[in-house]
């Protein structure tokens, strides 16, 4: 029986280092415990699906599924999976597989885009930059998701991609101070590129950023799950 606050959503956050699930209500509020397990490596689709099957056990019944995936997603299908193995994932119908496995309709977007839905204000040009295993980005104009740009795989300096330049491996290799200088440079480049009104930082390493311009804010790391309810709003973006 559904929660009185509306249809319940199984929110899934797929990361390069961790898998998270939670049941949220129609307002994006959690109604279950949040479960997290390490992402298996190697991580072919079947292995990840089996992990989710185990995580869902014991959770309340749900009506639909929202998932954020770290790569390019189009119409619920995976085009790239830089941290999980593009060769394994390319063309995989993740939305269809989730529906078949759990018997509920599923929608899938890039994980930074789902995170953005959980933190944006809906006013002006808003950008999302997630700092975790890699670096994810999303753009919104007055609350509407813009076409996805896979900046994480774009060169930024000396043929290094954003993932390589400010991802978790760079943080561990260079240390917090040096990494923060890189973050400062990236924020400047992204502003020149987009002239965003607000940039929202997310991901597990966002709290390590030491210097924030006035138009950059740190959002809740739970938004990667709670933003999933917006995938079921009117006119939701499929690509």
Describe the protein.
With 239 residues, this protein is of the alpha/beta class. The chain folds into 2 domains: 105 residues, Nucleotidyltransferase, domain 5; 99 residues, 2-Layer Sandwich (Nucleotidyltransferase, domain 5), CATH 3.30.420. The protein is 29% helix and 26% strand. It has 8 helices and 14 strands. The strands form 4 sheets. The chain has a 5-stranded mixed beta sheet. The chain has a 5-stranded mixed beta sheet with strand order 10-9-8-13-14. β5 and β6 form a beta hairpin. It is globular, with a radius of gyration of 17 Å. 43% of the residues are buried.
List keywords for this structure.
239 residues, alpha/beta, Nucleotidyltransferase, domain 5, 14 strands, five-stranded mixed beta sheet
CATH superfamily of the largest domain: ATPase, nucleotide binding domain
What is the CATH class of the largest domain?
A: Alpha Beta
Tell me what portion of residues adopts beta-strand conformation: 25-35%
**Largest β-sheet summary:** 5 strands, mixed
SS-based class: alpha/beta
CATH-level-2 architecture of the largest domain:
2-Layer Sandwich
CATH fold name of the largest domain: Nucleotidyltransferase, domain 5
Secondary structure blueprint with pairings:
Blueprint (H helix, E strand, L loop, with lengths): L8 E6 L3 E7 L10 E4 L6 H12 L7 E6 L3 E2 L2 E2 L7 H4 L4 H9 L3 E5 H9 L5 E7 L3 E7 L2 E2 L9 E3 L2 E2 H5 L1 H7 L1 H19 L3 E5 L13 E3 L4 H4 L13
Parallel strand pairs: 1-4, 4-7, 8-13, 13-14
Antiparallel strand pairs: 1-2, 2-3, 5-6, 8-9, 9-10, 11-12
Helix pairs in contact: 6-7
